[in-house]
Amino acid sequence: MKERVDLVIRAGYVITMGSRGVIRRGAIAVRNGVIVEVGTAESIDSRYRGDEVVDRGRDSIAMPGLVDCHTHTQQLLLRSAISDGLLALPPIWTKLLVPFESRLSRRLAYISSLASAAAMARNGTTFFIEAGGPYPDAVAQAAEEVGIKAAVTPSFYNVLEGRVVEEESRVRERLLAVRRLRGRYTRPWCSVRQVMMVTPRLLEEVAEVCRDGAYSGLTMHLAEYQGEVDYTLTVAGLRPLEYVEKLGLLDLGKPVVLAHVVYI
Question: Residue 111 class from Cβ within 10 Å (0-12 exposed, 13-18 middle, 19+ buried)?
Answer without folding.
Answer: middle
